[in-house]
Specification:
This protein is of the alpha+beta class and 430 residues long. Helix content is 45%, strand content 18%. It contains 14 helices and 12 strands. Helix 2 (14-24) crosses helix 3 and helix 10 (292-299) packs across helix 11 (301-325).
């Protein structure tokens, strides 16, 4: 591996700039911004770990859910995109028995590899994710070892862009590169990262986030067989559509909503179990409708409504992929709006039960409908209840849309995104 000073010099060369353009695009100023960003990261690494002489650079994108809201955990289909906001690391293999991480905005982490047991006091912290990734990799029979790393993230925390999944995947990618010659399959890495989030961090989540961060691009993922999900890149030039993908952060945190997220999965599975299945993908909508009289007494009305959302949104993903691949963007937008309406009325994840004064997601959706009807799309993004919405905004309406949303939700509330073709990557500049 090259030294810090060598890498900083390579970043300024044609080779370095070409590699950065492959990750961040060729828009005016994009490469220059990343050259400066990586140079600052390397300077931080040299200051934090002056004894280390060699270093490697890693990048993992955030992800946006484009279709299939709360379908993955019940064996359904999703449409997801890796985005151009990422988390990056400068890292060096040490060969010892501790992982030391300097992450911008957080205290220094020190994870002793001799003690990877789950700690209740670490729930919902980066330490839990780090410990969980290391523990699961070892449990699966892969090698782990010490490293030093400096991290910097452009994936906003709590933005619905899967900052936690990007973080988990980044650590898994570093361990894979340093101690396993990069040979661990992508889906194995995704599952062990998911394990860390579920079991160590304490957040229930499906496998969509980690898979998208690892693979990159616009992905259709079918979870009918959880052990072997079907992952396919969708053939679509999203940038040529004339629409911008915008995430609006309504400002409400979702850290206290894990029970609400878990209830969606649990209630959907309760419907499946009542009809002799394990997940809803094993059943069909007609069966649920036929059994409604008995189901209402067994699982309750909200569970049934959420099951109906699953069947409709699972079908919509297939239709969205077909629309994109035949270049029918208006059909894709219509389906996106339908998906959002289903999340609001059937899945019921646009505000927490009992919320009266603060319903930021619902307000953002209502404003988006007013501004974009007839020329765009809007839907809840990710888990819902609080946090973010997603909008597809035509170029001629972009200025007005951003102005109103920023006026209501704050100047930093809107994130314009591009689809990133590459997933978890080592820059390999030398």
């Amino acid at each position: 591996m090259p030294s810090v000073s060598q890498l900083r010099a390579i970043l300024e060369t044609a080779r370095g700039r070409e590699r950065l353009a492959g990750l961040y695009g060729t828009q005016p100023g994009a490469v220059e911004l990343q050259v400066e960003r990586y140079s600052r990261l390397l300077a931080r690494f040299a200051e934090a770990f002056p004894e280390d002489r060699e270093v490697e650079l890693f990048s993992v994108p955030g992800r946006a859910e484009v279709g299939g809201n709360h379908t993955d955990h019940n064996g359904g289909r999703v449409l997801a995109a890796a985005v151009d906001l990422d988390i990056v690391a400068a890292a060096c293999r040490t060969g010892d028995h501790s992982v030391v991480i300097e992450s911008e905005g957080y205290p220094r982490q020190v994870i002793e590899l001799a003690d990877l047991a789950r700690r209740e006091a670490e729930r919902y912290t980066p330490d839990a994710l780090s410990r969980g990734v290391c523990a699961r990799m070892r449990e699966l029979g892969y090698r782990i070892g010490g490293f030093h790393a400096c991290l910097q993230s452009r994936v906003p925390k709590g933005s619905g862009l899967s900052s936690s999944a990007a973080y988990e995947v980044l650590l898994a990618a570093i361990l894979n590169a340093f101690y396993n010659s990069g040979r661990i399959p992508e889906l194995v890495l995704a599952r062990l990262a998911q394990y860390a989030e579920n079991r160590y961090f304490g957040k229930p989540c499906g496998l969509m986030d980690q898979t998208t961060c690892l693979v990159g691009g616009l992905l259709s993922i079918d979870f009918r067989d959880f052990a072997h999900p079907l992952v396919r890149k969708v053939r679509c030039d999203f940038a040529a559509s004339g629409y911008s993908l915008v995430i609006v952060d309504t400002g409400a945190g979702h850290a206290a909503l894990n029970q609400e997220y878990a209830a969606i999965e649990g209630e959907m599975k309760a419907v499946a179990r009542a009809l002799g299945g394990g997940v809803l993908r094993e059943l069909d909508k007609d069966r649920v409708l036929r059994e409604l009289p008995s189901l209402r007494g067994q699982v309750g009305d909200r569970a049934i409504l959420r099951a109906l959302h699953f069947f409709d949104d699972d079908r919509r993903v297939e239709e969205q992929v077909a629309a994109l691949e035949r270049g029918d963007f208006p059909a894709f937008l219509r389906l996106a709006v339908e998906s959002g309406q289903s999340s609001w009325t059937l899945c019921q994840n646009c505000y927490p039960p009992g919320a009266v004064r603060e319903q930021g997601v619902a307000l953002a959706l209502a404003l988006s409908r007013t501004l974009l009807s007839g020329g765009g799309a809007w839907r809840v993004h990710g888990g819902g209840f609080a946090g973010t919405i997603q909008a597809f905004v035509p170029g001629e309406r972009m200025g007005g849309y951003l102005a109103l949303m920023r006026d209501v939700f704050g100047p930093e509330s809107c994130h314009g995104l591009s689809v990133r073709s590459l997933g978890a990557s080592s820059l390999e500049l030398a």
